[in-house]
Amino acid sequence: MTKNLASSFSIKTGIFPYAILFFLAVKITAQEAVTTPDLTDASNFSYSGSIDTYYRYGIDSPNRQIEDSYVVSGTAFANRNGFALGMLNLNLEYIYKNTGVVADLVIGPRGEEAVFLSEDGSQVINQLYVYWNLNNSIKFTLGNFNTFLGYEVISPKDNFNYSTSYMFSYGPFSHTGIKADFKLNTSWSLMLAVLNPTDFTESNPFDTYILGGQLGYSLGKYSSYLNFRYGNEGAPQTVEPTFQVDWTTGFDFTNRLYAGLNATYLTRGTDASDESSGFYGIALYSQYSTSDRFAIGIRGEYFSQYNYDLVTFEEVTGTPISSPIAFDNDGDGEVIAITLTGNYFIGNLALKPELRIDHSEDTFIDSNYTTSSTLSSFLIAAIYKF
Q1: Beta-strand pair 188-195/257-268
Q2: Which helix (H) or strand (E) holds 344?
Q3: Helical H runs in the chain?
Q4: Distance CA 229, CA 198 (A)
Q5: Measuring CA to CA, which residue among 80, 3, 6 is closest to residue 269?
Q6: How far from 55 is each of 78, 154, 365, 377, 382, CA to CA, in Å?
Q7: Which Pfam families does UniProt cross-reference here (predicted)?
């Protein structure tokens, strides 16, 4: 029997979130007299972003749609065949003294997948938050921001591989809430957060909250982050609390050679047999730069779900989803994915040829339309950043 690490604890609306906001209001009021910012000063504004597109080909699988979907890896993004679009990502920031606001906008299929719980009018919003640097060591952020868990991110310009891992795909994408970042010293950092249920970025329909935390360490060429989230991800009577612990670490062996690791474990709720469900995985990343214009890297990932966890993902998100990997009679399933990616740079343009092989027992469909345990694919992506 799998022990459920998450008890029936949940953080309900009450005095705690209001106390945080009251504290911020008092602190702001106590500051020196507010002066009106000069909105004509262009130095206060900044922007950045990227545009990405790609071509994908299934080597040993059908390349046409079957029942309105493609035979692809069960991971987020880069999951259409032929010539396909990624997204336009535009980041806007305004800074005045020790405060600022960020609007991170997305247009395109990748962006729509990233904000899958947003209403039609808000599907262009990836992040939208304000921040306040209380001093050099403490920063408060309020609004919608991308997750602090995991190794990979939504924006393709910030990932080495173009396709994504299973852990990234089924971990959080974004949060809405309040967080406080503390710089403890030159090496150690701490982040604490109170958040809506995961990926409910526009509002909180459940009257429950999530606790988030991160302990970071960075020294020279080494960095490591231990991340947590705990709380009720849905209506208290239908979904029990979720607990996740996630670790990312990386080291630059030389100016050309880098290695990273991401490991995660998630458990949520119990069924009628008092069994919890969840998933866990580990991914290793290795990247080598042959020159300033070319680098090659490999990602090896092992990912496993237990007790039908991803089959019941709809109960957590409200969005229908089928299991990305086949499962046995106990609801357990696993997948191994190897991804080899090249990065060729032409100024601000990055070309990324990528070969990916996924192996999971009887999960895929081959070119003869029969069940297969292996899925091989090739893609080449173009990412222009500005």
Answers
A1: unpaired
A2: strand 333-346
A3: 15-30, 109-114, 166-170, 313-317
A4: 10
A5: 6
A6: 9, 19, 20, 11, 9
A7: BBP2
Query: 287 in a domain, yes or no?
Result: yes
d(CA 23, CA 20): 5
Domain that holds residue 205: 45-385
pLDDT in tens, 172-215: 999 999 999 999 999 999 999 999 998 899 999 888 999 999 99
Flag whether 111 is in a domain.
yes
- State the number of CA atoms in the 13 A half-sphere of 286 facing the CB: 6
Q: How much is the pTM?
A: 0.85
Phi and psi of 280, rounded to 5°? -155, 160
- The helix, strand and coil proportions of the chain, stated in percent and rounded to the nearest 5, come to 10, 50, 40
CATH number at residue 326: 2.40.160.10
Q: Does a structural domain hold residue 201?
A: yes
**Residue positions counted in the chain:** 386
**333 strand-pairing partners:** 305
